[in-house]
Amino acid sequence: MRMRKILAGAFALLVGATVLAAWPSVADRGGTRWAVDDDTRADYGVCRGTDDDCYHDWQTAFRADGVDRVLVYSATGVSRHAHLGPRLATGMNPPLTDANVAQQAMRRWGAENGLTIDWTEDVLQLDSPAKLLRYDAVVFLSNSRDILDDAAQTSLMQYVRAGGGFVAVHNTLGAEYHWPYFQGLLGGANFYDHGPSRNGVVEKASRRDVSVAELPKRFTMKDEFYNLVPFPTGVRVLARVDPDTLEGGGKGFNGHPGHPAEHPVTWCQYYDGGRSWVTSLGHEVALWQDTAGDEQARLFKSHVVNGLLSTMGKKPFCKA
After folding, report:
1. Which phi and psi (to 5°) does residue 271 adopt?
2. What is the predicted pLDDT for the residue at 162?
3. Which CATH number is correct for 2-24+42-312, 3.60.9.10, 3.40.50.880, 3.40.50.300, 1.10.10.10?
């Protein structure tokens, strides 16, 4: 296991170094944005992008059983966000406390939309493709660092390749740094750092995608607003934050040089046969609580629920 992680890490660093060498310098970018042209993005050896030719409509268990199932996987490594609450017991569907607000929200929002929701933090529940192929979508919820072993990685690859749906929320951008396939599934992007959690104005970058269709053109959201290195490439950006609107001043994002003018927070793509929808939003506990009159929570719920439904294929996916 240790040797596998060392080799995987070396490969990831090699891929990253190759891409970084091709990126324009800060001076060449003129201090305006951090972006990578499609011809310089990392090649993960799969079909990926916004063209549905990269999608596989293969016959699988989740297409045959007539049940809309979703698995929520919230395992964490070093760090754990408050909205996840205490770590869960092993097994499938262990008891949840009131402090597990994000898992409770996914259960509640799923039930409201006729979905069967399972949840776990036990990697053994992901150790064979047959286990994952029951689900129309798998939600990776604020994971951190190493949260998959070799068997689970293989299962996830096989699931995605069969046309499975993958949703990543918030800190999952800080997970599985040393597995290139997973990084590609995230759009080639990683969490680098963030400033304090604060209000900022989020803008829609798509007119038709269902995950933003119910959102105003511009709306206020409180979050950590991650800096991303690498920057997502080959994806359709669905929403971005306006850095000039951040409370306390937004230029440079916590002193980081990469995002003074272009800062995506949500994007989508087809990847190796499956669908992938990723958002860096979701830090605040309040966003996961259906509190009457909380406009930010209402908008966040619409964003995540419709992103999930589109990834499952129940609504149109990844529209401009």
Report:
1. -145, 115
2. 97
3. 3.40.50.880
